[in-house]
Amino acid sequence: MTQTLDRSTSEVTDRVESWVSAFQDALSARDVSAAVSLFADECYWRDLVSFTWNIATVEGTDEVADLLTTVLDRIDPTGFAVDGEPTSADGVDEAWLTFDTAVGRGTGHVRLKDGKAWTLLTTLDELKGHEENQRERRPFGTEHGANPDRVTWKESREAEAEELGYSRQPEVVIIGGGQGGIALAARLRQLGVPAIIVERNERPGDSWRKRYKSLALHDPVWYDHLPYIPFPDNWPVFAPKDKLGDWLEMYTRVMEINYWGSTFAESAEFDEAEGRWTVKVTRDRGDGPEEVVLRPRQLVFAMGVSGKPNKPEFPGMERFRGVIQHSSEHPGPAGYEDKKIVVIGSNNSAFDICGAAWEAGSDITMVQRSSTHIIKSDTLMELALGGLYSEEAVRNGVTTRTADLTFASLPYRIMADFQRPAYDEAKVRDKEFYDQLRAAGFDLDFGDDESGLFMKYLRRGSGYYIDVGAAQLVADGKVKLVNGQVQEFTETGVKLTDGTELEADLVVLATGYRSMITSVADIIGEDMASRVGKVWGLGSDTTKDPGPWEGEQRNMWKPTQQQNLWFHGGNLHQSRHYSLYLSLQLKARQEGIDTPVYKLAESHHAE
């Protein structure tokens, strides 16, 4: 048995190494036809910056040929080699790769079917000559010897904080100081790119602290680490909002990020001739607001996934005698114990708010206007995340970076096929739970193609709830449920189109958010926002993600139709992972490295 296993392992290694050697030979010879012949008819090459100076996926051999014909000479890829031991399962060989380009070093991952590439991932890890100052390159921290002109680390930091943005301009301004902006600023600092975060809240983490008091992360700790400083081993599996806020504040200080709190971005204009932005901000350092003009080369909006709160206007809202809040404004149920609350919506925020209100003793009703995907938290962790992001994965030697790259190696076109089995199993495992929800009248779905939560998130950023207990309250009737559309507000509550009237002292609009570009337009203007187009979505032609197919997140972490304008954000996992690739693109431009963008995406406007 051992000899058979060894022979099988050797055969897998031979197949993979043969493919890698042939691929490198073809690249070195600039023989595009030979390289393309190594790909299956159905194939996907996803590149994170290394070949394309973009985040792009090409599909099929014709697109692979076009990519190589366009970029091969200037990228000059060398040294493709297998890293570690290849594996094989279900007729697919897999291996990690390393390689160099003319300007950088990268990591790759390949899946082979019948000896030909089915999927290929290539990523840029670092720029040659501009590596991060870590490990053997870490800063010394002090100056040994005697020096009457010594400047301490603290004095240097204080001088930087006083000068940057005033007597010395940053290379990058990041508008938005949540986890996305903070992760990117940390990366840029390690690359020596001067950057300032502009954030309207006073302190890092306030965007979490100011939400309703029961809020906690729905993603587990192994999925949520920030760059460089992982959460400690005793960190809660699901971080409460205030604890996460304190972590972000600590992280900002320890990573020495230039964070301008209590600062409002008023406007931003781009001078194409000079290649610089004029960003006007109002900053309050404790002694009253001052106007400051920043002149960065690069402008990044890091405002999460969403833009302005989606606040629908219903007839009669002005005559309602109670209180109307959007979920973003809702502090929690305090003051509404033993009173009637109506929550319009049935996604994450709606369930969290309903659960907290029921615990406080409120009479709570949820209005479900469209179907919602629900997955139990423990089921999600075990079936969908456990192999990559869990304590078991850590014990198996799966680092955060390995997990991130494994996930990134799945092209979006076929990701649903990889996701669907977990949710098929969830339907069986939690059948009784789902039957109870349906019996209570809840309109349940698993996505347009039954692929579950993460595809809904990638496609539309809404339409789901990770159940941490509130769904059972609906199933049990403890949180009342009605289905329908709001017709109008009355003096005492809400009336639905079917005539149902719901009395309310408080109505919470858990109606989500609009595209990030809606908030950005207030700063850069409607014309420039239109040039950029919608932010987020894949173009999958599913609900709330209209085509055409793009195959990557629209306008996220990559060049846009507006020169020197970028978008960064997403959940904690995406903020961590993609901050590397955005920071490398920004560093390359700071250093004057030639960065011709392959397959720059067109702007898209349909919501």
UniProtKB/TrEMBL annotation:
Name of this chain's protein: NAD(P)/FAD-dependent oxidoreductase
Annotated FAD/NAD(P)-binding domain residues: 171-402
Species of the source: Actinomycetospora aurantiaca
Region (Disordered): 130-156
Keyword field: Oxidoreductase
Biased segments, Basic and acidic residues type: 130-141
InterPro entries, sorted: Auxin_biosynth/cation_transpt (IPR050982), FAD/NAD-bd_sf (IPR036188), FAD/NAD-binding_dom (IPR023753), NTF2-like_dom_sf (IPR032710)
